[in-house]
Amino acid sequence: QRDYRIASIPGDGIGVDVVAEARKVLDRAAARYGFGLEWTEFDWSCERYSRTGTMMPEDGIERLSVFDAIFLGAVGFPGVPDHVSLWGLLIPVRRAFAQYVNLRPVRLLPGTSSVLKDRTAEELDMVIVRENSEGEYSELGGRHGSGHPGEFALQESVFTRVGVERIIRYAFELAGTRSGRLVSATKSNGIIHTMPFWDEIFAEVAADYPEVGAEQCHIDALAARMVQHPDRIDVVVGSNLFGDILSDLAAAITGGLGMAPSGNINPPGEYPSMFEAVHGSAPDIAGKGIANPVAQILAGAMMLEHLGEHAAARAVSGAVETALAAGEAATPDFGGHATTTESGTAIAEAVG
Ligand code: NAD
Ligand code: IPM
Ligand code: MN
């Protein structure tokens, strides 16, 4: 019997609800495809912070290191400043485990009310490959001159050759297995120093992949193209912040934030990878029982794929489509009436 040890961190807000539904679906897939998921749950969250003063224990990273994968809901909740919750859990995990690839696939889902709902599923199928360890998300900087008219804030971005090259190479490899088209999102009019550096490395790596159609596009124009001509986009590679923004945009045009999964991948596999939804803890709907569990369930499918359980992964994403098409899984954000639990149950049943 194949058994996988999974660390589950439901976190805050709707994270708790959607992780519960996803576990239900994944356990069903495991039973059907003959493997075991051994879950260990951690209560690391803003609620824990309020009790103890930290988001996770001091040896948190060490404790996670023994797992085959990490399944995260979302962290962050009013009452605890975001920089505390994020630098206290999410960002340290991504960095400590060198999860330098953030993979964010989106596809048009049946029943969506997106402005692009009349497109075909073939036209709207892309992957954002987001740099996940450096770039604009740096600790370098700060605020100065509090209380003075000249008060200012300074932020330094860090782009290393190693960091930029490895994410671009990953994106080329991925594009080679898909349509053979890759677009790099930058802002390279020479205004921002880091961007021509990124472009230069992109061009160098492109020389190693003559079979991939490589294109560089300004992020502002790419955002417009994503809405107007999504059929011309397949794999997108971008920096940490650009990839973050493009992934919510890509989610919005396919099915909404409730539908978009995400994998924080450590490609060599020397550390655990982490799977989560693109969305956050949604404090505005937390506790109402109406959060859409699909993004978290699809993140679970990505986790199964990562663990090598390809048939089960396909069954889970197939079950999402079946249950959505049958109208049983759609929560209010997706134009339906299902509660979080009803949606999760319908999808679990569709797994078989
Ligand atoms: P959000 O993604 O939580 O919510 C944005 C909007 O989308 C809200 O109106 C919300 O109700 C809706 N939404 C999101 N997911 C949904 C779902 N599954 N079903 C139905 N509606 C859904 O983004 P935000 O409001 O900017 O952030 C809220 C908190 O979450 C903040 O503390 C933020 O820092 C945190 N956050 C955490 C993560 C993470 O842990 N990975 C990711 C993003 C945001
Ligand atoms: C995401 C989130 C995080 C990010 C925030 C909460 C730090 O928006 O996972 O997309 O920007 O990485
Ligand atoms: Mn984001």
UniProtKB/TrEMBL annotation:
Residues 331-352 are annotated as: Disordered. InterPro entries: ICDH/IPMDH (IPR050501), IsoCit/isopropylmalate_DH_CS (IPR019818), IsoPropMal-DH-like_dom (IPR024084), TTC_DH (IPR011829). Its EC number is 1.1.1.83. Its cofactor is Mg(2+); Mn(2+). PROSITE patterns: IDH_IMDH (PS00470). The keyword NAD applies. Residues 5-347 form the Isopropylmalate dehydrogenase-like domain. Belongs to the isocitrate and isopropylmalate dehydrogenases family. This is D-malate dehydrogenase (decarboxylating). It comes from Amycolatopsis cynarae.
